[in-house]
């Protein structure tokens, strides 16, 4: 069972897609991640992009904890249908589902005038390192990221660190058993005197 851990929709149960390649982030890992994000003040009023959304649990957890806008991108039709049902369970008006590939969604660019404060990237294990690197590059190239954006990549602990594009720098890493999370941010901006 997957559930929203905390916030306005805390305790509500979420459905998970069956027969697809989704693997929901465990409650323990989600709690650790969102404690970190809240400690950094990254959720209240945030614009969040959840790529390879699966059940939508990560993005919906962000919505429950105060995010203003959450875009959930999922290409698997059955999973996108489950996400839409989960959006109804959470009842947050700022959540939108994009039923398309991550690559096409990113190529379309962000909604007019909106940049993402938080990007959650949890691809299926069969997504290659090169494909992941292209997705991370598209976030920068297509101007999805706010100046102080925070990017989280979740992979198997056996996976290598993602290849970060120019415009994103590793700022931390955490391992939880079989799960590894890497955190990246745009480099500090130079102050011109």
UniProtKB/TrEMBL annotation:
NCBIfam families: 16S rRNA (guanine(966)-N(2))-methyltransferase RsmD (TIGR00095). Coiled coil: none annotated. Residues 15-24 have a biased composition (Polar residues). Keywords: Methyltransferase, Transferase. Pfam families: Cons_hypoth95. CDD domains: AdoMet_MTases (cd02440). This is 16S rRNA (Guanine(966)-N(2))-methyltransferase RsmD. It comes from Terrabacter ginsenosidimutans. PANTHER family: METHYLTRANSFERASE (PTHR43542:SF1). InterPro entries: RNA_MeTrfase_RsmD (IPR004398), SAM-dependent_MTases_sf (IPR029063). Gene3D superfamilies: Vaccinia Virus protein VP39. Residues 1-27 are annotated as: Disordered.
